[in-house]
Amino acid sequence: MRERLLFVTKGGENFEEGFSYVAELAKTLKAGISILLVCDKRSRDTYEDFMSAAVFAQAGEFKTAKELLHEQEIELEAEADSMLKGLLLKYGEIAGDINCRIAIGDALSSIKEYLKNRPNIDMVLISPSLSKSSQTIDLKNLIRKISKPVVTISQPLQAGA
């Protein structure tokens, strides 16, 4: 079975940070790449959506209430899908062996859930967008919870003048 690398990144402007390293590593190892794009729920929108959904549910409009609750997920998935399509165009030479998944929630549980049914992942690579802040992902906890090698990708240091 062919090796697979899991690149975990956070949705947003810097989602692509570190992917060039993963792409080069995949070429060297002749490995496939799985991308896990972790998106945060927007808490302000979530609260408003819950309140609106509750009003519709009380009025017996269950279909509308359900649509409101899933609207944010649909929006995030559309944004992420657009970002991932751009990435696949940019790295066309390896695009044939890249698959993508979008997870909404915290990074640690998203990674753990993703790996649960995918034993073919050989290494987890964490993008700088996730690893630069301990608030985003607890690496010690991640290493304890999964049995795969974990590599954190950092941003190159800027030369000082």
How would you characterize the overall build of this protein?
The protein has 161 residues and is α/β, with parallel strands linked by helices. The mean pLDDT is 80. It has helices at residues 19-29, 43-58, 62-90, 107-116, 128-131, 139-145, and strands spanning 4-10, 32-39, 98-104, 121-126, 150-152. The chain has 6 helices and 5 strands. A 5-stranded parallel β-sheet has the order 3-2-1-4-5, with helices on both faces. Strand 1 (4-10), helix 1 (19-29) and strand 2 (32-39) form a beta-alpha-beta unit. The chain has one domain (4-41, 72-152): 3-Layer(aba) Sandwich (Rossmann fold), CATH 3.40.50.
Number of helices: 6
State which percent range the strand residues make up.
15-25%
Cα distance, first to last residue? 49 Å
CATH architecture: 3-Layer(aba) Sandwich
Task: Name the CATH homologous superfamily.
Answer: HUPs
Order of the strands making up the biggest sheet: 3-2-1-4-5
Please identify the top-level CATH class: Alpha Beta
Radius of gyration: 18 Å
Profile the largest sheet.
5 strands, parallel
Estimated helix fraction: 40-55%
Order of helices and strands: EHEHHEHEHHE
Give the overall shape, derived from the CA principal axes. Answer: elongated
| CATH topology call | Rossmann fold
* Overall pLDDT level: 80
Number of strands: 5
Structural domain tally: 1
List the helices and strands and how they pair.
Elements: E1 4-10, H1 19-29, E2 32-39, H2 43-58, H3 62-90, E3 98-104, H4 107-116, E4 121-126, H5 128-131, H6 139-145, E5 150-152
Parallel strand pairs: 1-2, 1-4, 2-3, 4-5
